[in-house]
């Protein structure tokens, strides 16, 4: 992992690490695969989390912990999409808008989780340089991935809200490549949001496994 944590190149005065670059490129690929509703989005997200865990471990413990949770949620997403009962005629996971109850539950979980994690980061300053925005991104990422695992269009809205904080935070902490990737994330999120929004109308009546099409 020492080789991955070495400097790849310098861009606009920012030192780009191999681990930062490779991990975020995998993360970008995972988001693109998620837009295509490919189950391979989950192993790619797991690999991205593993690489970024190595990048952060030892000096940004909070960010490393975030990646560990990301890997666990990626395993959940893989399991959920493998066993998913709602599928379209092309065999991909069906997408839908969340119910108001689900939206309320996710919003409440995001708010409570952000406060709890931020207080943890403040109690242990070595876990994070910026407790509140880091906690917001941490919890927002988990909520977004959960919504993705459940095939909810709100997955894209959650990612967009994460991007709004992730871009400046990564640049401020010296992870320039992560910041640039988050900018690309934003464009891909808008594209994916439109695609899932339109598909949610087509997938309103998914084909159930074992049922005739």
TrEMBL record:
<feature type="transmembrane region" description="Helical">
    <location>
        <begin position="174"/>
        <end position="193"/>
    </location>
</feature>
<feature type="transmembrane region" description="Helical">
    <location>
        <begin position="46"/>
        <end position="79"/>
    </location>
</feature>
<dbReference type="GO" id="GO:0005886">
    <property type="term" value="C:plasma membrane"/>
</dbReference>
<keyword id="KW-0812">Transmembrane</keyword>
<dbReference type="InterPro" id="IPR006419">
    <property type="entry name" value="NMN_transpt_PnuC"/>
</dbReference>
<feature type="transmembrane region" description="Helical">
    <location>
        <begin position="136"/>
        <end position="162"/>
    </location>
</feature>
<keyword id="KW-0813">Transport</keyword>
<dbReference type="GO" id="GO:0034257">
    <property type="term" value="F:nicotinamide riboside transmembrane transporter activity"/>
</dbReference>
<comment type="similarity">
    <text>Belongs to the nicotinamide ribonucleoside (NR) uptake permease (TC 4.B.1) family.</text>
</comment>
<keyword id="KW-0472">Membrane</keyword>
<keyword id="KW-1133">Transmembrane helix</keyword>
<feature type="transmembrane region" description="Helical">
    <location>
        <begin position="105"/>
        <end position="124"/>
    </location>
</feature>
<feature type="transmembrane region" description="Helical">
    <location>
        <begin position="16"/>
        <end position="34"/>
    </location>
</feature>
<keyword id="KW-1003">Cell membrane</keyword>
<protein>
    <submittedName>
        <fullName>Putative Integral membrane protein</fullName>
    </submittedName>
</protein>
<dbReference type="Pfam" id="PF04973">
    <property type="entry name" value="NMN_transporter"/>
</dbReference>
